[in-house]
Amino acid sequence: MSTEIINDEEEGGKGFARLPMRDKDLPQIVRQLVSNAPVKFKMPTFIACMAPLGCLATRLRFHYPFDQDPSAVLLQVIICSEQSGGKSFARNVESVIMARQKQRDSEQRRLEQEYRELKQKMSKNDSLPDPPKTAVVCCPISISIAQLVKRCDAPVRLYGAPLTLWTFTEELATATETNKRAFSNIKSIMRTAYDLGSEYGVDYLSDTSYSATVDILYNTMYCTTPSALDEYMDKKAVEGGNITRVIVCDLGTQLGDEAPIFKRMTQEQHDTIDKYIGRMMADTYQEDGGICPEKYIDMSWLDKDIRAWCDDKSLESVKSGSTALGTFFKRSSKTAQRVAALCYYLYQLEIEQPDSRMTETKARNSTRKLYHCMADYILDGMMRKWGKRFEELQAKRLEETRKSQSNLFKSLPDQFNRTLLRESIKRMELITPDWVFLSKWKARGIIRKINDDQFIKQ
Fold first, then answer.
1. Where do the DSSP E strands lie in 227-339?
2. Bridging pattern class, strands 199-202 and 60-61
3. What pLDDT score does 28 carry?
4. C-alpha span between 40 and 262 (Å, rounded)
5. Would you give the end-to-end CA distance of the chain in angstroms?
6. CA 109 – CA 147 distance, rounded (Å)
7. What phi, psi does 337 have (nearest 5°)?
8. Is the pLDDT assigned to residue 254 strictly greater than 70?
9. Alpha-carbon distance 277 to 271, whole Å?
10. H or E segment at 154?
């Protein structure tokens, strides 16, 4: 059930990943978008659907077999290709899926703007009414830390529970260049935002800033070039774990390829997507203005597959000696299960329809295939992009640890000379001269001088 790499002569004979099922077997929302994509872009389109749909399924909860706490569909997607490499398709996917949420956000922002205008008009002696309680989900890539914390805290104050925030950008490089300082902090936050219940807090001295401790739920989709991605996922991001929390969708080289042609969506497809998006939002927002309770789905039937896949990759890492594989496969599996849980939830929405042909058996079989496919795909993407770099950094850190823990005195034989001592000092990359060590050791009585060149341990 692993991710299949096919070579299609009509696609230039270049390898690319393929979904493990036909378009018609995908969940309805995803099906409409993937079926309009050319064969090489079906997998990228599927992946581009996952993060925004996960944002809309913000009340969905399930358990991962190796975790005690429940999980949510928190996903971070990166679409990577060279300039003019076709990654702009993600914009259409995002705009179609998030249309309703953006309309709702516009109404919320309008309330905020009206309050700001009222505040500017009123004099200091006038009594200002309380600000409106709003909950905005879609955030710009240039959002500041204080504003991000405020956006996370707002639904908790309004509904008593957090909502998943959403950010999409077509140009990651532009965002990082214009707001480097804030974006550096947001990269740290993204490590916390991967897990449900991991809190992040800020406590500013200024009264004009926003201070709070929040559970940041944050889904993102960034489009970027390889060089911009390397700048974003720097050494700290590789060592800190940012790279293990993302799904990298590398479109590969487009050299000599014609521009990909996507079919235009029909009105029927738009209507189908809108119907299911409306059903998803009904699982989040109540008609009376409140928020729906958390929706738990049973994913225990997938646990056996998850454990088997993880056992297989663990054995592979032991045989190969790859620390990158041994580290990457764990979060690859966790992220893949989130994708699988989201798709299973979408299948359930389809089963609820009176004229549906989807059955529970089909839903589980398809979800199982998607888990295996995505687990392999995510792991392969990490290994290709950061495997070698991770191994190098790990080797360097272990070497530095070994050197720092090495004992110069213990490394010498019971009887040694100056030449041997100097070689040991050089090998351990120490900067202290040999005569200083000899002087200190003789003063402590742990060595005895035989002659000017020979010494013996006491």
1. 247-250, 295-296
2. unpaired
3. 95
4. 11
5. 65
6. 13
7. -65, -35
8. no
9. 10
10. helix 145-159
DSSP β-ladder status, 4-7 and 15-18: antiparallel
Q: How many residues does the chain have?
A: 458
Contact criterion met (CB below 8 Å) for 378 and 247: yes
Q: Cβ-count burial of 435 within 10 angstroms (0-12 exposed, 13-18 middle, 19+ buried)?
A: exposed
Distance CA 154, CA 104 (A): 15
Instruction: State the Cα–Cα distance between residues 399 and 51, nearest whole angstrom.
Output: 39
Phi, psi of 317 (to 5 degrees): -70, -35
CA distances from 335 to 306, 308, 341, 370 (A): 11, 16, 10, 12
The residues facing 165 across adjacent strands are 218
- Lowest-confidence segment of 29-38, 191-200, 278-287 by average pLDDT: 191-200
Distance CA 162, CA 294 (A): 11
Residue-level pLDDT at 316:
93
pLDDT on residue 398? 67
d(CA 352, CA 158): 30
Which strands, in side-by-side order, build the sheet including 454-457?
415-417, 454-457, 447-449
The string of pLDDT tens digits covering residues 204-231 is 767 667 888 899 999 999 999 999 999 8
Give ∠ CA 239-386-3 in degrees, rounded to 5. 130
Q: Using CA of residue 399, residue 400, residue 405, residue 406, what is the dihedral sign?
A: positive
Q: Residue holding tokens 């795909």? A: 377
C-alpha torsion sign, points 248, 245, 379, 396? positive
* 59-68, 88-97, 370-379, 410-419: range with lowest mean pLDDT: 410-419
Amino acid at 71: S
Whole-angstrom Cα distance, residue 63 to residue 300?
Answer: 8
Residues 314 and 107: their CA atoms lie apart, in Å, by 49
Contact 221, 181 (CB under 8 A): no
Alpha-carbon span 381 to 366, nearest angstrom: 22
Helix (H, G, I), strand (E, B) or coil at 138: strand
Contacts of 85 (CB under 8 A, 6+ apart): 225, 251, 253, 254
Residue type, 312: D
Burial (CB < 10 A; 0-12, 13-18, 19+), residue 195, is middle
Amino acid at the residue 142: S
Lowest mean pLDDT among 13-27, 151-165, 226-240: 13-27
**Nearest Cα residue to 233 out of 242, 225, 224:** 242
Q: Which residues contact 436 (CB under 8 A, 6 or more apart)?
A: none
Q: Model confidence over 132-160: pLDDT tens digits?
A: 889 999 999 888 888 899 999 999 999 99
